[in-house]
Amino acid sequence: MRELVYYVAVSLDGFIAGPHGEFDAFLVEGDHMDGINADWADTIPTAVAEHLGIAQNRSVVDTVLMGWNTYAVGLPHGVVSPYRHLRQLVFTGSHAVESDEVEASAENPVEVVRRLKAEEGAAIWLCGGGALAATLAGEIDRLVLKRQPLLFGSGIPLFGSRPYAPERFDEVGTTAYRSGVVVSEFERIRD
């Protein structure tokens, strides 16, 4: 069965973006980038990977899930299909996507993910945002957190509002970089 992987950059105080979706404070230069780009090339926007000469073969992930706000980040810049090398699903009940390469869904994200997990293929990447992550928390099999040496103070939390419901994950690997970025991977403990 395919895994749902929540792979995301996060500040030390638990935010994946600023209060208005800002993410430009995250470090995109430094020794951490070579490791991230090698291990997670499929999570780089297609145009960026092409510009950098990074091959994307869909071996790690082949599907990306986004909430509307995550998808909409690129729209003012004319980016209507950010991950055109992947199957792209955007969860929205009120917006239309501007590309035939992107699927919009108003369905319950949990039901969609359960169907996707039953299909053949590589992992499913939960790109963001925090509200969608909160909805899908029980379906997440693996967390890969790119902890950045930053405090945001406020913003969009890693997991939006969700009721108190402890769920256990085991750390399976951590790499600390000189840049201060720490990439930690966790697997869900299933009963």
TrEMBL record:
SUPFAM superfamilies: Dihydrofolate reductase-like. One of its GO terms (biological process) is riboflavin biosynthetic process. Residues 4-182 form the Bacterial bifunctional deaminase-reductase C-terminal domain. Gene3D superfamilies: Dihydrofolate Reductase, subunit A. This is Dihydrofolate reductase. One of its GO terms (molecular function) is 5-amino-6-(5-phosphoribosylamino)uracil reductase activity.
